[in-house]
Amino acid sequence: MNEDQDIVLKQEIGNKKYSNVKFPTISDQRKKYLLHIIIEGEESIQEFHTTFYSANPNLKNAHWITRQDHPIEKENMYYRDRPSIILKKSFIVERLEKDLFLDICGLGYYTTYINGKRIDDYYLNSDVTNYGKQVYYDTYKLNPFVEEGSNEIIVELANGWYNPAPLKLLGKYNMRHRLSIGKPMLICSISELANGKQRNIVESNHDWLAEGGKILFDNIYIGERISFVENEESNPDSSTRVNMRVTEIVGPAGKLVPSTIPKTKRLKKRKPNVIKKTKYGYLIDFGKIISGQISLTISSKKQNIKINYAESLNDSQTELDYSTTTTSIYGVNDPEQGINESDTVIQEDQFLCGDGKTTFENMYVYHSFRYMKVEGECAIFDINDLHAFDTYADLTITSEFNTSNQLLNDLQRIAIQTKRNNIRSYYEDCARERLGYGGDIVALIESQIYSFDSEQLLKKVLLDFIFDQTLEGGITQTAPFMGIQTFGPSNNAGSLGWQLVLPVIVLKYMKYYGMSIIEDKRISVSLNRHLNYLLKFDYEYIKYCCLGDWGSVDTVLINNKETPPDKEFCSAAMYLIVLQSYQKLAVFTKGMSFETEKLEEKIRYVKEKLIKEYYNSKGYFQGGSQSSYIFSLKAGLDKEFPELLQKFKNQIREDDGVFKMGIFGMAWSYEILDDQDLIYQWLTRKSYPSFYSMVSNNSGALGEYFKKMNGSSLNHAMFTSYSQWFISALLGIKFDQETQESTDLLIDPYIPDDIEFAEGTLRTIHGEIGIGWEKTQEKTMIKAQIPSTINYRFSKEFKVNSKTIIDGSWFIEAIKR
Questions:
Q1: C-alpha closest to that of 104 among 259, 255, 248, 251
Q2: In three state form, how does the secondary structure of 214-280 look?
């Protein structure tokens, strides 16, 4: 109840009953809602109570603040020591029975303490986006941390993505010249709520106090430098002595909105496999590639300790190989720091330890590594305790999978791990670049949804791309936009396959989570702008504006550039595929104001041109590579040439069963191929090229390529799309592509001869689906648990023996005919 008004809307659709809680319009202050639900059954009454609080509309009234420091310092001073910014404020709490809240955003990253106690277990917080368009804040209930009387809040700020280094990514992109950036800063408000009234206790302003922290430097691509020596500067240069005055400052232009995505946490603790003493210190092997942070305790007299990280060792197995984790140069000259502009950036932490035991741990960076090298000035020190933490977004895993084939179980586990390694507040491509590439998201989106509860993160990432949409309507290669626009058709826009991210996220969201995604006017407007942009190009121009099927085994170097097979056809076909995505959107959204006639006309024209230019008398497109086959099938060209699918399967067999496609073709093949034996033989293949050989060589993570190329990442998720096949094919959980909200389910498991059983679950918005099948000498039995709100059917190969409904779920047994 809210002020004696009913806020529950009940409705019946068919034989299903829905109850939707409708909260009143949010007022000019935070509100508290008490929700009491009573369910009257035939034999019992169930009651549920919960409490909701609305967002704080008054946070914008606080001020962005920072430490004075040196406000006009030049870029070439960035790499020098400077103590981290610590801001603090005392406040009074009169009565603990009132609801106390902290609304806060610290840019780039921040940590909050109340009365000396950390109030969360988040790391690398806050959410990364285009801060010029949107800024995400967090809300904490402070009652467990405060006491009546005097209290103190302390916030430490770090650089994060908001104050990036002037390093040049890929040797040319200076993030400071591309991203929405600024000095680390804070906005926050502490308020109390009682009797329906909100009162602010503390707001960020220039009355706060500032201090310097132990962290002297932090950068997301490099690492941290820390001094544990009290009252002593590790560098006597005057740049370490800063002005401690707190000052109000103009913050980013983005709108302040609550964060809704899963936060980054330390989710697994790992011990090293091997610690080897060397002439200069220690060489440490964790046995597997980790995306995360470290903690170690050193026993030593005062000295500087340096830690370097790498995913692999050199050929002699004695030194770290940095090539797979770096792609940047420092970008500026600083002789006092010994830095040259063209020096290669590597992952490196440093700290000045005191006498006795010193514990160092990462706070505002993470590393991708299997190996660590720990060295000291005099190499006389002991490591007393060392462990690493997997540090990534705390996404809820939505599927479980297990079979009698251990290789498949291992591949599924490794796919999930590699995905998690590269997700924090957005989908990163790899730990080397750490950029949110649209093409990688397109290739992985189905497997992502089959693996994790991705609803909120997908919505946030979609907005990231919308925020960086070009004035002309194009979608950038990455979001946040870093400047990369390889083969993009116009100013700042990305290549076509990477622009596909906009309509694909919307289509997949509607399929698995519902139509609410297009209720946001920003999204519908952006989709219209993007389609109109695409329609303005002549086919003869835009057909070249794509990278093709990136990552194919058949990739060759042409003019020193990686070039996938049949790139010209695949690029032209990608234009058709993008347009067809909008054609599907037009059907599902009843037009959404699209210029549907112009869209249909363009699709017909492009299809005719593709056939005329690239189809040949041998019965395939361009050179007949696997990539050209899968692109032609994805574009629906098999409607004119039905033999394409069979020729594609024949080509795979001629290639010894190797799937040679790149990231798009590989993902699409698991959905399009109707020969499950081919897919199964590919996934269980052990000889190179195969996932088995990739994982064996990459220390338990998937890499960028099947064969390690110079500088390629060994911690890259772009080929993890196979994980969806384990759920959709081996378990047989298949949703109709044309149905929204995953309401129509086909149960059609593929049962290989050499697997005795398979079992697993998939959580959906309707509840959990459970499937298990097992073979005996007499029969193959399948058992299924399916929420009653899902329309299900079995394939013709199965006959239903029994079915019952218990607590809103169907329990079904069937046998293979």
A1: 259
A2: CEEEEECCCEEEEECCCCCCCCCCHHHCCCCCEEECCCCCCEEEECCCCCEEEEEEECCCEEEECCC
780: number of CA atoms within 13 Å, CB side? Answer: 16
Cβ atoms 348, 224 nearer than 8 A: no
What integer pLDDT is reported at residue 718 of this predicted model?
94
DSSP helix/strand/coil, 202: strand
pLDDT in tens, 616-643: 999 999 999 999 999 999 999 999 999 9
Rounded to 10 degrees, the C-alpha dihedral 339/341/347/352 comes to: 20
The pair of three-digit structure tokens given for residue 805, joined into one six-digit string: 């409904």
Q: Kindly list the distances between the CA atom of residue 596 and the CA atoms of 43, 87, 592, in Å, as whole numbers in the listed order.
A: 55, 55, 9
The contacts of residue 178 (CB under 8 Å, 6+ apart) are 481, 482, 483
**SS3 state at 494:** coil
On whether the CB atoms of residues 101 and 142 are closer than 8 A, the answer is yes
Q: Which residue has the tokens 């806050």?
A: 126
Residues 47-81: pLDDT tens digits? 888 888 888 888 989 999 999 998 888 888 999 99
Cα separation, 169 vs 146, in Å, equals: 44
Backbone angles phi, psi at 183, to 5 degrees: -75, 145
Task: State the DSSP code for 58.
Answer: T
CA distance 379 to 386: 17
User: Can you state the percent helix, strand and coil of the chain, rounding each to 5?
Assistant: 25, 35, 40
Q: Element (H or E) spanning 127, and its range?
A: none
CB-based contacts of 232, cutoff 8 Å, min separation 6: none
Backbone φ and ψ of 186, nearest 5°: -135, 140
The pLDDT-based confidence of 595 (bands split at 50, 70, 90) is confident
Alpha helices in 637-719 (DSSP H): 644-654, 663-672, 676-683, 691-697
* CB neighbour burial string for 46-61, b if at least 16 within 10 angstroms, e if fewer: eeeeeeeebebebbee
> Which region holds residue 352: left if phi is over 0, alpha if psi is between -120 and 50, else beta?
beta
Contact criterion met (CB below 8 Å) for 527 and 510: no
Instruction: Please state, as a whole number, how many other Cβ atoms lie within 10 Å of the Cβ of residue 605.
Output: 13
Q: Give the Cα-Cα-Cα angle 499, 667, 494 (nearest 5 degrees).
A: 15
Enumerate the β-bridge partners of residue 621: 615
Higher-scoring residue by pLDDT: 15, 448: 448
Compute the Cα dihedral for 56, 57, 61, 63 and give only its sign: positive
DSSP 184-199: -EEEEEEEEEETTEEE
Spatial separation of the C-alpha atoms in residues 624 and 25, rounded to whole Å: 59
* CA 160 to chain CA centroid, nearest Å: 16
Residue with tokens 């709108």: 255
| pLDDT class of 516 with cuts at 50, 70, 90 | confident
Which amino acid, 627?
A: S
Which tops the pLDDT comparison, 591 or 494?
494
**pLDDT tens digits, 263-280:** 999 999 999 999 999 988
Beta partners for residue 757, in sequence order: 774
DSSP string, 271-308: --SEEEE-SSEEEEEEEEEEEEEEEEEEEESSEEEEEE
Structural contact between residues 324 and 423, judged by C-beta atoms closer than 8 angstroms: no
Which pair of structure tokens corresponds to residue 769?
A: 């689906």
Q: Which residues contact 772 (CB under 8 A, 6 or more apart)?
A: 757, 758, 759, 760, 782, 783, 784
Q: Tell me phi and psi for residue 427, to 5 degrees.
A: -85, 110
Are the C-beta atoms of 210 and 67 separated by less than 8 Å?
yes
